[in-house]
Amino acid sequence: MLAHRLGRRIRSLAAVMLVGTIAVAAAGCGSGSQHAAGPGGPAESKTSNSGETKAAAAKQGELTFGMVFPFSGPAAEYGTIFAEGVELGQELLQQHDPSVAMHLVRVDGQGLPDPSTTGMQQLVSVDHAQFVATAITSVSSAIAPVGARSHVLMFNGGGLDPSLAELSPYFLNLVPLNPQQFDQLLPYVVEKRHLKKMAVVYSNDAIGTSTLSQTKSYVESHGGTIVKALSIAPEATDFAAQAAQLSIAQPEVIEIALSLGGTQYSQLMKQVREAGVKAVFIGAQGINTPSVLSLPEAKGTLYAGESLDMTLKTWPTSAFMEAWEKKHGSKEQPSFYVANYANAVLMSGELAKQVREEGKPVNGETLLAALHSTKTFELVGGEVTLNSDGTTFQLPTALFEFKGVNDVAPVQ
User: Fold this and answer.
1) What is the bridge-based pairing of β-strands 10-11 and 407-410?
2) Do residues 102 and 348 touch, judged by C-beta distance below 8 A?
3) Dihedral sign for Cα atoms in the order 70, 72, 73, 78
4) Which helix or strand (DSSP H or E) is residue 345 part of?
5) 185: left (phi over 0), alpha (psi -120 to 50) or beta
6) Spacing of C-alpha 34 from chain mean position
7) What is the pTM (predicted TM-score) of this model?
8) What CA dihedral angle connects 19, 3, 88 and 337, to 10 degrees?
9) Residue 26: pLDDT above 70?
10) What is the pLDDT of residues 183-225, one digit of tens each?
11) 50 or 292, which is more confident?
């Protein structure tokens, strides 16, 4: 029997993580809408009677939780996963404390800065969201100023670049940022596995270039060599040229640092293997996606990621696992992304309740004050404590290896 711990074997995860649709689930308080944001104009409501829904939500005292996720484009796989976490969080919050109701609004930012910024502006000015969840470094960097100006509490559960810790006091990171993940991964690969001939395939943006810099510095200072560093466009989907170059270089390890990830990882891995390269793939936790888990070519992949204890008997973890198993069965495990974004909703609900109990209005200033006075939260997978920087949390990490199709285990 599989133990309910994200750091243990994960089987049949591909089918699990693809659950969810573009329509917002009517979980708990049962309200939600969706917007499609595009670079050519303002986001357009995709639900009927959205004005009536918003008016009803305001009348009932519901809070609005927005999502700026990629529901289309190369990173759409992530959007589905992230949104399921938010919806599960809404369901748990409604069950635990019906007095704190959340109205969910989706924005399809396509994983790109411009449409995401347009969508964020609508969430702030039209939907009057108190909370917004997002991911992807370039998107987060683009929308953070909008949220900061309007004092909207924002949650990142997927982006990894260290610059995300410095965007705004209102931008919170419920995921371990680099270099924390690579600080654990690189010593294992270089010093324990003695794999020192490395190639890096990275997107030519903030997360890609910072990862390359960190990796190059560590590998070369420990007797290794970067035999090939290949920069690609963030939206790239064909990697035949890169695979051909890697075939010539024949590295022992290929580090992948792509900002959009998702199907990019799986396509790159397939084309590299077709080119005859047998190197071990490594990366951060974003490499753990359904499309990669289902690949025979991904066997042996190593990554660093969160270590969440899903055996805890606390109400957030127990209720989360009960809700998950009711929908997916006991053999399939949720990803850390689902837990992260469920936690964003649960933390939002706890902060809003605290503010209301103090007789204050729920807004960015009062929520931020409540965050800094509380600091420690019991969430799905364990307790988290706000760090002194005010934007990151103390979160444990571990190393994992792909043992085979839909089979991931912690490195012993």
Assistant:
1) antiparallel
2) yes
3) positive
4) helix 336-357
5) alpha
6) 20
7) 0.82
8) -70
9) no
10) 999 999 999 999 999 999 999 888 889 899 999 999 999 999 9
11) 292
